[in-house]
From TrEMBL:
Topology class, membrane: Multi-pass membrane protein
Name used for this protein in its record: Thiol:disulfide interchange protein DsbD
Single GO molecular function: protein-disulfide reductase [NAD(P)H] activity
Leader sequence residues: 1-23
TM ranges: 199-229, 241-264, 276-297, 318-351, 357-385, 397-415, 421-439, 451-472
Organism, as annotated: Aromatoleum evansii
Function field: Required to facilitate the formation of correct disulfide bonds in some periplasmic proteins and for the assembly of the periplasmic c-type cytochromes. Acts by transferring electrons from cytoplasmic thioredoxin to the periplasm. This transfer involves a cascade of disulfide bond formation and reduction steps.
EC number(s) given by UniProt: 1.8.1.8
């Protein structure tokens, strides 16, 4: 009998959970007045945009298509309201409807006569109580000052870190775009807002582990390995781990601080660092480090200074912790990955709520996840060091070559394409020569001698092919001899879809207004590695190219990060490239279809199929 009663209780619980949210039987109490159930407020985000916030009481909901807005005086007009996607439910009165609960934020483009900075907004909303009552349209007012500074909401440090922020996030549906849409970065921003603190930190640590295996992170491997190897075989395994940990912590703190600054300011910090002077200086550091590993000189303090510090520097044997931390900071800022969905989601959350504590903690956890494999690399670099002899010199020279490769990789986005091609050719050819590619082997050469000579020959041939291709006009290091089949390449390229560049919001609006087919807008920058990956591996896929050929393709090149570039990024709540936005034939953004970061061709083709419907 006890088991039967338990089963009945379980079934009753399941039926209660599966009951519709608006069923009257599940709601008790008396209904509230509409102005208490739906509280409207508004503020100006800038002179052209007003944000309307409606707080919705528990057990109440609003209809998405019932919002109406007007201004007093009527010389102030509003554009098309931009609102986030609601939840589609079955309503007892209107059937399938889109509704909002808890809170909704809507952006209104404003057009006011010159000299008019203050007006009264009159907003009408309509919704229902789950207890079975639906209200008529209810109009509320808010006084707007277009010149007033917008007020951001956010909790204190402890509340933010523990995920206890009671203040709602801003659903900033920018003019012409969606707000917190159902794309990946929007869902990640929602995770920050809705989940508990420990779950958020664990999730972002996992995101970091995934990002650790992206091409943007690969240059950090030779940097850290070079630091470990450069200190020689006397470094212990524990010291190698400490140096690696300091490097990773420097990277993580930088990500958190730079991410919070970017989220609060809305600026693209990476763009400020991606210029020839900054990258050239950093590349020079790597060249100097590599030359030291080749034995051209020893990097050390002056003798007099060494003598003065010898008594206090014993705890820093095997390398300066401060120098390693600085290298981690620089690596995070300059060598780190381009904007990806987890990073974009965290920045979006920070920008919307001003909650820098939770957003910064999430970015710190993400950077730790990105650096976790580097800890293994640092310790592994120690284990491969021989005790003494020629092997030690060979290992150091190998990492010297890797550091030179990082220097070339850093300069590639900001110098003419011919120079990186020539640099790669020289690096490969000289590496092959150092591996005795052109030296005769002794008659009784051992297996390893023959193996490394073979590697040297391959590198020498690859470098020669790179040099020939560069001189013949090729600028693609991965296909240096493609210029030899120029006619076939040209014929195939003519069939690929072409992008039209848009340099400002005005140009974008004009192209969207004239569009007669679905539109794809791609955000790109010369220094963005993931952008180049999208072009090389995704956009050129035949299935992807065929689908893109049925769309109007627009490209926003934000390399310069000027005011127009910043305005375009801000319009779509993006903090940097790559980002792909889709619009329907009427020029309205398709909710939930954004692609932030690199996406493989097969998955991107599925997104295009949805965008073409």
């Amino acid at each position: 009998m006890h088991r039967i009663l338990s089963l009945i209780a379980l079934l009753a619980s399941l039926l209660a959970l599966s009951a519709p949210a608006n069923a009257a039987a599940t709601v008790t109490g008396t209904p509230m007045r509409p102005e208490e159930a739906f509280v409207l407020s508004a503020q100006a985000l800038d002179p052209q945009t007003v944000e309307v916030t409606v707080k919705i009481a528990g057990d109440y909901y609003l209809y998405a298509d019932k919002f109406r807005f007007r201004a007093d005086p009527d010389t102030v007009t509003f554009g098309t309201p931009q609102r986030p996607a609601g939840k589609v439910t079955k309503d007892d009165f209107f059937g399938q409807v889109e509704t909002y609960r808890k809170e909704v934020k809507i952006l209104l483009p404003v057009s006011a006569p010159e000299g008019t900075t203050k007006f009264r907004l009159l907003g009408s909303v309509q919704g229902c109580w789950d207890g079975g009552i639906c209200y008529p349209p209810n109009e509320q007012t808010a006084d707007i000052d277009l010149l007033a500074k917008p007020v951001k909401t956010g909790g204190n440090f402890l509340d933010g870190l523990l995920g206890r922020d009671d203040k709602p996030a801003q659903a900033t549906a920018a003019s012409g775009g969606s707000g917190v849409s159902d794309d990946e970065s929007g869902r990640i921003a929602g995770l920050l807002r809705d989940a508990s603190g420990p779950l958020v930190l664990l999730s972002f640590f996992g995101f970091g582990l995934l990002l650790a295996f992206t091409p943007c992170m690969f240059p950090m491997i030779p940097i850290l390995s070079g630091i470990i190897v450069g200190h020689g075989h006397h470094i212990s395994r524990g010291r190698a781990f400490v140096l690696s940990l300091v490097y990773v912590l420097g990277m993580a703190i930088t990500y958190a601080a730079a991410g919070v600054a970017a989220g609060l300011s809305g600026t693209m910090l990476a763009a400020a660092l991606q210029n020839a002077w900054v990258l050239g200086a950093f590349a020079l550091v790597f060249v100097l480090l590599s030359l030291s590993m080749f034995g051209f000189y020893e990097l050390q303090l002056p003798t007099a200074l060494q003598s003065r510090l010898s008594s206090t520097a014993s705890h820093q044997q095997g390398g300066s912790l401060g120098g390693v931390a600085v290298m981690g900071v620089l690596s995070a800022l300059i060598v780190g990955p381009c904007v990806a969905a987890p990073l974009a989601g965290a920045l979006l959350y920070i920008a919307q709520t001003g909650n820098a504590a939770l957003g910064g903690a999430a970015l710190f956890a993400m950077a730790l996840g990105m650096g976790a494999p580097l800890l293994a690399v640092g310790v592994a670099a120690r284990t491969v060091l021989p005790r003494a002899g020629a092997w030690m010199e060979g290992v150091k020279k190998a990492f010297g070559v890797m550091l030179l490769a990082v220097a070339v990789w850093l300069l590639t986005p900001v110098v003419p394409p011919l120079l990186p091609m020539l640099a790669w050719a020289a690096l490969l050819m000289f590496s092959g020569i150092f591996l005795h590619a052109i030296d005769p082997l002794p008659p009784h050469a051992k297996g390893w001698q023959r193996f490394w000579k073979g590697v040297g020959v391959v590198l020498l041939i690859g470098g020669a092919a790179m040099l020939i291709g560069a001189l013949a006009g090729s600028r693609d290091p991965l296909q240096p001899l493609a210029v030899l089949r120029a006619q076939a390449t040209t014929a195939n390229a003519a069939e690929l879809p072409r992008f039209e560049k848009v340099a400002s919001i005005a140009e974008l609006d004009a192209r969207l207004a004239a569009a007669d087919r679905p539109v794809m807008l791609d955000f790109y920058a010369d220094w963005c590695v993931s952008c180049k990956e999208m072009e090389r591996f995704t956009f050129t896929d035949p299935n992807v190219a065929a689908r893109m050929g049925r769309m109007l393709l627009l490209k926003a090149d934000v390399t310069a990060n000027n005011d127009d570039d910043k305005a375009l990024l801000k319009r779509f709540n993006l903090f940097g490239p790559p980002g792909t936005i889709f619009f329907d034939r009427a020029g309205k953004e398709r909710a939930g279809l954004r692609v932030v970061g690199f996406m493989k061709a097969e998955a991107f083709a599925e997104v295009l199929d949805r965008a073409l419907r």
